[in-house]
Amino acid sequence: MNEHTTISQGDAIARPVQGTASFSKFMAVLQAIADNPGKLDISQLTASVRFPRATTYRIVAGLVAEGLAIQNDNGSYSLGNRLIQFASKSWEGSDLRTAARPFIEALRNATKETVHLAVPSGNGMAYIDKLESPNAVRMMTRIGARVEFHSTSVGKAYLAALPEERARQIIAGLELRPFTEFTFTDRELFLDEIRKTRDCGYSYDHEENERDIRCFGSTIYDRSGEPVAGVSISIPLYRYDESKHAEYARMIRETAGLISGSLAAVVK
């Protein structure tokens, strides 16, 4: 097998790995894929999980056959749509999503812009709810999609809510790949950005994840004061009014605070 070996559903008939320990092995491979989406091929996955290559191959074949993983054109692997469907069904009934919904609806109605709710997922954030702008130009995002810490307002808001040393550790492990010419690719500069975000209480995405889109984000905390999610407003550049910057910042901070308070009430 070479690194770009294509795994088909037919490979699912390969001899399965048996026993309770096998489940842990499946989870280890799945976690490696989740932590490194689109980055690891069969050889790299094998090195990451430290299983025999044949064992890794059988596990990945099973994941692909069940729709839990997909093989990309370059031979690497990403999480499959079936996992996203599972996650979406779980999030639909979650306390966080339920607690946040009236407040993100109010924010969307007040700003007439797209609002996202996201939770930490691996080395980034995953959208668990989204309310579209009523305007013609909208964000091409979907519930279940995963975005990076370093290029999004929800990601920056979440990192800023962590202790400095923990944020530094996470940033040290990020790839910091550029999505636009405005994306942070220098770790020290990005750390400075996180410190500024921590000081002002909200994050700002200046076309760092997508050209012509500005975003404001803030952190949601649970009852114990731990950061658990982020909320954001996304505004197309042609609708963005710099004179409203402070107003957007105030609204996103207030919304995050209201959701945090509501979430604390839900879990009592």
What would your notes on this structure say?
It contains nine helices and eight strands. It is an alpha+beta fold. The chain has two domains: 9-79, Arc Repressor Mutant, subunit A (Orthogonal Bundle), CATH 1.10.10; 85-266, GAF domain (Beta-Lactamase). Strand 7 and strand 8 (227-236) form a beta hairpin. Helix 1 crosses helix 3 (53-65), helix 2 crosses helix 3 (53-65) and helix 6 (153-161) crosses helix 8. The N and C termini lie far apart (54 Å).
Provide a quick synopsis of the model:
The chain has 268 residues and is α+β, with helices and mostly antiparallel strands. Helix content is 45%, strand content 18%. The chain folds into two domains: 9-79, Winged helix-like DNA-binding domain superfamily/Winged helix DNA-binding domain (Arc Repressor Mutant, subunit A); 85-266, 2-Layer Sandwich (Beta-Lactamase).
Give, in spatial order, the strands making up the sheet with the most strands.
Answer: 5-4-3-8-7-6
C-alpha-based Rg, rounded: 20 Å
Second rung of CATH, namely the architecture of the largest domain: 2-Layer Sandwich
User: What does the main sheet amount to?
Assistant: 6 strands, antiparallel
Give the SSE order as H and E letters. HHHEEHHEEEHHHEEEH
The number of distinct β-strands equals 8
The CATH topology of the largest domain turns out to be Beta-Lactamase
- Which secondary-structure class do the elements indicate? alpha+beta
